[in-house]
Amino acid sequence: MYQDFKFHIQNSNLKSVICNLNTAFFFSLIATQVFAQDFYKKINIEGEQREYIVHLPINLNSQKKHALLLVFHGGGGTAKNSLSFFGFNQVADTAAFIVVYPNGIKKGWNDGRLIRKHNHNDIGFIRQLIDQLGKDYPVDEKRVFATGISNGGFFSFALGFHLADKIRAIAPVCATIPEDILKSSTPAKPVSLLLINGTQDPLVPYNGGKVGGKWLNRGQCTSTDETVNKFIEVNQCNPPATQTSLPDRDLTDECTTKKYSYRCANENQVHLIRIEGGGHTWPGGKQYLGKRLVGRVCRDFYATTEVWNFFRQLK
Questions:
Q1: How many domains, in total, are found in the chain?
Q2: How confident is the model over 236-262, as pLDDT tens digits?
Q3: Cβ(249)–Cβ(284) below 8 Å
Q4: For residue 50, is it within any domain?
Q5: What angle do CA 256, 260, 265 make, to 5 degrees?
Q6: Of 56, 81, 106, 283, which alpha carbon lies 20 to 30 A from 89's?
């Protein structure tokens, strides 16, 4: 399974030195140096070739089970772009979990919003993918997690509802439960939730409604409060929430943040991070489009580390 192994050398000086080494010395060197490990792979789902990227942590122990994190790009994104956009590889190399970036067909996911003209069996893709990853790598099948932004966040909710037997917890960003999913189904078993939403998201309204803002019609989503309440019910949580204000570390980003945490049955958790003034963006990440189109990036915390800190507590 290592024939399609690809090395990505991040240190430019080391890269220039290695280029001048002979082949034998190069392969002896890789046994002792630090390299990121990415596999570009395909799997056949119902006659379609589906693509995904696997990142193995530097300190992977094949004799030990490792958590698996599935990371879903937003609409218009790709698995390849996700490597730099989310920044999970660096966290994985420290915390020793496996990261997988599936690729959506035509840069999108069939996330349950019926207006989206996307009829590919993405749920089936992820179910089969998880099974395959369990055969290829030392995956802890009890610690499979999903996160994503926008379309990838909506799809994380779809997985929480339709793949609860595989998914332990989800952490959507800039998303709520698609209205069509909430009306028609419920998770078969508890799935823990961390939800990160901005109150000034111009594309996914915090209080629910039409997705896409003034420019697009991308179906209907429930409100953030409705979404949290559904997971409070599913996870048998005890309101009221414990409220914590996160430090306002960047006074120039025009955002403040509060976290709401619920105690739930059987060690499950439900958390909401509400970003006052936050937009359709990954907190701590890039301002990938203008503020007029996607709103502000909150820089008081880094969503990548917050998401992993949530997942790593779960047993």
A1: 1
A2: 999 899 999 999 999 999 999 999 999
A3: no
A4: yes
A5: 165
A6: 106
